[in-house]
Amino acid sequence: MRNLLAVAIVFIGFNSFGQIEEVRRITKQLCSPEFHGRGYYKKGDSLAADYIVKEFQKLNIEGYDREFLQHFDIKSVNSFPGVMNVKQEGVALKTGVHYVVDPSSNGGKTILNPKQTDVTILLDKDKLTDAINTVADPNNKFNAMAIHLEGLSADTLKKLAGISQALAGFFPIIEVTDAKFTWSVGSEQFPFPLIQIQDSIYNNGSLTIDIDAELLRNYHTQNVMAYLPAKKKCAKTVVFTAHYDHLGRMGDYTYFPGANDNASGTAMLLTMAKYFKENPSDYNILFIAFAGEEAGLLGSKYFVENPVLKLKKIKFLVNLDIMGSGEDGVTVVNATLFEKEFALLQKINTEKSLLKVVKKRGPAANSDHYWFTLQGVPAFFIYTMGPNKNYHDVSDIYGNLSFKEYEDITTLLIEFVKQLK
After folding, report:
1. Beta strand residue intervals within 108-193, DSSP E
2. pLDDT value, residue 205
3. pLDDT band at 15 (very low <50, low <70, confident <90, very high)
4. pLDDT on residue 90
5. Distance between CA atoms of 46 and 402, rounded to whole angstroms?
6. Helical spans, DSSP H, in 228-378
7. Could you tell me whether strands 114-117 and 314-320 are parallel, antiparallel, or unpaired per DSSP bridges?
8. How far apart are CA 321 and CA 334, in angstroms?
9. Bond before 390 cis per omega within 30 degrees
10. 229, 267, 287 from 260: Cα distances, Å
11. Alpha helices in 39-153 (DSSP H)
């Protein structure tokens, strides 16, 4: 009996180790430079989609109705496909560290001689008008405006929201900030460049810029879908989702790996697929890897408007986003809407002593569950909490992921599906 128990323990340990190695392998590959940040540079999103399809095929899982891809177009998306150079007094600044361009920035090749502008001017309509007229006057030395935002409170920054973007309609703008950089995806392109620069590097002088920006119209992309039928015929389907896209590149040499957000969730999605392929559920299970999340939850919106199965047949949807840590537990968005299912999660967590906490949060339009919730589909968005705070920046790399609670999270999700009534 002891020998059998020992063999079982070794097998379980080996299987868990193998699963972690798989999730690490997939996450690392999705974060690699060859996928260009899974964005809109050299079709990085489509390269990632092809990779995910191959991973489903390796598991011998078919697409929904034998179709893996659900195609759709993004009306417009801004991109930075080539040169990205900003110099100060002849010294090149480091992209993503010293500066970033606004996601909706235009490009250009010129020398910027900015007029320095502080918050007292920005919040005074007459002073701001005078500053605008000064920069716009072709007879003076200025051809740009530097807006100093360092040291400002959150309330003041909220009051100033949108001013820089509006001014970039008239001339180039430099935002000087002491805040951590976060980037996103732009759906438009301003008439002029908008550059954010760290106050620790900026010396109030001129900048030489050479920036290539391109607004892509009717950009073609795709959701990825795979399907497992229930072990017995069933009318209801459990859906696991995760967005696979990220922010792409800011020029040829700087890309955003998007390890935690959301290569980790995509890898977790494939882990769920592997488990339920080997252990069929009482429910049908649909796996969806969404495109266009970073551009405004566009892939999930398209799916909800063009569902491959009737939404009323979805028993429950679990959206996985930011799955790379868990030292401080997980947060469950929509927990206040679906209290019975949230209680089930907490019960499983307590009985099996899994995570530090399963935290309750109300509805939020912050990931791909959102459109489903609006249509009455019961859904959770689950994300991990931990010391890794890298988000939408160049430091969200594979090497910063701990996957500390990966096994416990997968156990929680598997048991949730098994006990879901």
Report:
1. 108-112, 114-117, 144-148, 173-177
2. 92
3. low
4. 93
5. 27
6. 264-278, 298-305, 339-352, 369-374
7. unpaired
8. 14
9. no
10. 30, 10, 19
11. 44-58, 119-122, 125-136
**In contact, 290 and 242? CB cutoff 8 Å:** yes
β-pairing, 330-333 vs 358-361, is parallel
- Give, rounded to a whole angstrom, the gap between the first and last alpha carbons of the chain: 36
Average pLDDT score over residue span 370-399: 97
Q: Which of 144, 157, 160 is nearest to 106 (CA)?
A: 144
CA 28, CA 299: separation in Å to the nearest integer? 23
Residue 20 has pLDDT above 90, yes or no: no
Please state the domain extents for the chain.
Answer: 20-77+216-419, 83-211
Is-contact 409 268, C-beta < 8 A?
yes
Q: Is the pLDDT of residue 82 over 70?
A: yes
pLDDT above 90 coverage of the chain, percent: 92
Sheet holding 314-320, edge to edge: 69-79, 214-228, 284-290, 237-243, 314-320, 379-384, 330-333, 358-361
Can you tell me the distance from the alpha carbon of 227 to that of 245, in angstroms, rounded to the nearest whole number? 20
Beta strands at 194-198 and 173-177: parallel, antiparallel or unpaired: parallel
DSSP one-letter string for 60-88: T-BPBTTB-EEEEEEEEEEEB-S-EEEEE
d(CA 105, CA 314): 40
pLDDT over 80 at 41, yes or no: yes
Q: Output the average pLDDT for the chain.
A: 94
- At residue 2 the predicted structure's pLDDT band, cuts being 50, 70 and 90, is very low
Instruction: Answer whether residue 18 shows pLDDT above 70.
Output: no
Residue 258 is which amino acid?
Answer: G
Q: What is the pLDDT, as a whole number, of residue 16?
A: 54
Tally of residues, the chain: 421
- pLDDT in the model for residue 96: 97
Q: Hey, do 20-77+216-419 and 83-211 end up sharing a CATH topology, with the first three levels equal?
A: no
CATH code of 20-77+216-419, in short, is 3.40.630.10
Residues 6+ apart with CB under 8 A from 84: 95, 101, 210, 211, 212, 250, 251, 252, 253, 254
Rounded to an integer, what distance in angstroms lies between the CA atom of residue 395 and that of residue 415? 33
Helix (H) or strand (E) holding 158: helix 154-160
Residue 158 vs residue 74, higher pLDDT: 74
Of 3.50.30.30, 1.10.10.10, 3.40.1170.10, 3.60.20.20, which CATH number belongs to 83-211?
A: 3.50.30.30
